[in-house]
Protein 1
Amino acid sequence: MTLLTHWPLAGLRLTTPRLELRLPDLDDLAALASLAAEGVHDPAVQPFTAAWTDAPPEERARNVLQYQWRCWGEWQPDDWELGLVAVRDGLVVGAQGIGARGFAVLREVTTGSWVGSAHHGQGLGTEMRAAVLHLAFAGLGAQHAVSGAFSDNAASQAVSRKFGYREDGVERHVVRGAPAALRRLRLTAEQWRSHQPVPVTCEGLRACLPWFGLQ
């Protein structure tokens, strides 16, 4: 018996021209925590609905670890959150998540990501999003993917435009004690097929399908 016998998600690999996305092992988690501690964005802004990046560096690192472990421990086929690390030339550069509830019926996923500050401006966020959209639409048969970004998060909105997302309404949140508008974005399978700027390959998915609520 190996880990893959009991946890086939550990064998899932998504590959883009510059990145490999995979479920992190303990060394990957240590690198990801250190990356979060070093900084994820300009501290003058808060681009996330959860203010985890406002915490001190050591707390940010711990929060990243606990979030990943919580995703593992709470995984259910009808309620899952897949947290992947993005690795470039052996170096962890960011985190990419994809999740769903009732996926077998709704066929809808949500995505979210962050890239270490030292790796901004290199188009890595686009490749990371491409990887999980390929997993969702080509691998799992999703019909919709949903994302969102605050009105001042131009970088995230630019990535979404590359894939053909369309406006899906506005949510109001409290960010650092003030109101902020989150613009919801939706991508259909048909729109995705027309906007695939990055080639992606997927390995190890077949054994994982029951874990996503699929046969």
Protein 2
Amino acid sequence: MKEINTEDAIGHALCHDITQIVKDKVKGVAFKKGHVVKEEDIDILLSLGKDHLYVWEKKEGMLHENEAAIILRDICKNEYMEESDVKEGKIELSASIDGLLKIDIDKLREVNSLGEMMIATRHQNFPVKKGDKLVGTRIIPLIIEEEKMKKAKELCSNGPILSIKPFVHKKVGIVTTGNEVYYGRIKDTFGPVIIEKVKEFDVEVLGQSIVSDDPKNITNSILEFIEKGAEMVLCTGGMSVDPDDKTPKAIKDTGADIVSYGSPVLPGAMMLVSYYKNNDKLIPIMGLPGCVMYAKRTIFDLILPRIMADEKITKDDLSKLGLGGLCLNCDVCHYPNCGFGKGV
């Protein structure tokens, strides 16, 4: 820190707040600590009685908090993101589109472990909307070693920490199974729930087929939707392990590759995820457990955004959902503002 004449302060960073008081009008901070003095600030500072200022004395190998904050921004920011102005070593990033937020967790931990800098994000693998805040970054001290910021850049040399995968348009077919529905003994209440959930995204519902418990009928109905251009097929009913529950077999008989039948999530343990190869396209076929019909949030809510961002769900992806995969069935559901599905 050094004292200099105010007229000579252009380009220097203030080491303290400067207060402005105008009777009956203003009482507050006119210039905050860390503000870099500009030519147009000089007359204002002089009018505040500041003939001299205490400014940061830049030393070789040291960066001002705002300079370093730009580096933090650059190692976080990717396409489809907008940044705030830098202020007191802080910059925030927001989404410029609707999409799925992805975070390189290893990079995030390594940068935060360097000390004197911080990056705080939302949870990954959850949908974000245009304008949603994604991350806040800050340099902790007023000045920081340039070498430390170089290390942060090196850790992220192969790409930013954050990314957003845009949601894509998908055509969806729904296959509802069960003799009780097929023969009109009960009214189907599963289909409307599924349609409401997928309509949160950019989808075209090609239709809903209601078929009997005959596996051949289920298989044929799935394949018919694929022939009509379906890019995702959702099957409801017949997903437990009872002898008369034939949907898993019917999905397998389409020739689809079964990723997993079962997931470490409650509600949603009996979820089936598979992929059918149609020329060069992989079409997800999912068998939805009965809980999706009546529970507020389930495994389907955790997987659907990723499917809509064209992510291929793997067995490892599903295994990781066990941490945080227990819904507490709160009387008032606050999802996604809760811990469900946010273990990793």
Protein 3
Amino acid sequence: MRVPDASAPDRVTVLLVDDRPENLLALEAILQGLGHRLLRAGSGEEALKHLLVEEVSLILLDVQMPGMDGFETAEHIKGREKTRDIPIVFLTALEAGGHQAFRGYAAGAVDYLAKPFDPWVLRAKVGVLVELHEERRALQRERDHLRRRAQQEAQEALALLRRAEDAAAGAPLEVADRLRVPLAELREHLLARRP
């Protein structure tokens, strides 16, 4: 697992959400050596506001918070197209029994850790989940690039076809008649394959 350069401008952001400042401080102390940018939120509402403007790679989310609890916050996060793919790890002082853990997973969490948790386990999980999320983002950027390239190539092919059709229209009648059907078929084929 690679450790990101803390001075790199493109380092990833991990959103820490907990209503207790001492818990946020403890999370920062545990994660500081990973080189990620750590962003704090003291409530579910504040977390959602951050997610409107920040690009986040992982969310560590407390379950028990006044107002909007962690489960509700996760449902809002997973309900937004921009944020639905961000992995969420629930952290809770509640008994991590089957019902609470199931509720966490049902809300979209990728993991559920009961406090007190082993700091080394949390660091390892954060490292792996951030790396997986960043690899997924890189694949999405590559897909988007390939899609744009295919669209550009399709537009160029259609432009060439238009020029061929124009040239065929100016050709002698016998040549134009022989080219009309193949050019029409080529146009249909290109239009059908356009991304």
